[in-house]
Amino acid sequence: MAGEIVEKLGLDELKRIYRDHVREDFPRSERRPFSSMKRMTKAGKYACYGYYDNGSLLAYACYILTENGMYALLDYFAVVPGLRGHGVGSEFLQRLKNVAPVKCGVFIEAESPDSAKTDEEVQLQKRRIGFYLANGALLTNSKCLLFGVDYNILYISQTVSAHSMEQLHCAVEEMYREIYRPVYGRLCKPYAVEYEKQVGK
Q1: d(CA 168, CA 173)
Q2: Do residues 135 and 88 make contact, with C-beta atoms less than 8 angstroms apart?
Q3: What pairs with residue 137 in β-bridges?
Q4: Helix or strand or coil: residue 101?
């Protein structure tokens, strides 16, 4: 629609979204302190975008950026309550491909269904992975055990097929080593699996 735009967020708008939305959309255990977002933004290692329709927020996304500018890790992605399930997230994700501040692409963490404790969690995690796959993401053969949570790693870019699984896994390891250097290898353990096992074949 003509009124829909994607805008990079300044710190004032990011603070407002954090206060009004992030706190409601994500549990405390998954919330990064705003002070951390602010520090990384000023250092050029964090970037956030809002999706608006005539000034009203529809969705938002935040990225952790690698120092070389080649890749980013999707830190937050959410559609505001009341608009979920209506295609807003899909449209926003497609538009983000054109504005994501990276040369290559974006990695996405999605909790692995293999680590779910209930059938409900399995279905929820499969739906989340399915959402990204339906919007052009690639399920890589990389996983990461991060602070005790097992994640599947997906990858999305305009040229998603231009990279081999080996190249992507090397990039995943390098990215996590940079972002989580103090705990890398202890609380952050990226690893590769056979692709057939990753997709459950």
Answers
A1: 9
A2: no
A3: none
A4: coil
Express each pLDDT in 35-87 by its tens digit. 999 999 999 999 999 999 999 999 999 999 999 889 999 999 999 999 999 99
pTM over 0.85: yes
DSSP for 30-89, please give it: GPPPHHHHHHHHHTT-EEEEEEEETTEEEEEEEEEEPTTSSEEEEEEEEEPTTSTTTTHH
pLDDT digit string, tens, across residues 75-87: 999 999 999 999 9
- Maximum Cα–Cα distance for the chain, whole Å? 48
Q: At what angle do helices 88-96 and 119-134 cross, to 10 degrees?
A: 50
pLDDT in tens, 137-159: 999 999 999 999 999 999 998 77
Q: How far is CA 79 from the centre of its chain?
A: 13
DSSP element (H, E) containing 126: helix 119-134
Under the phi-then-psi rule, with left for phi > 0, alpha for psi from -120 to 50, and beta for the rest, what region is 69? left
Can you tell me whether residue 138 is helix, strand or coil?
Answer: strand
Could you tell me if 193 and 199 are in contact, meaning their C-beta atoms sit under 8 angstroms apart?
A: no
CA 171 – CA 177 distance, rounded (Å): 10
DSSP string across 141-167: EEEEEETTEEEEEEEE-TTGGGS-HHH
Residue type, 77: F
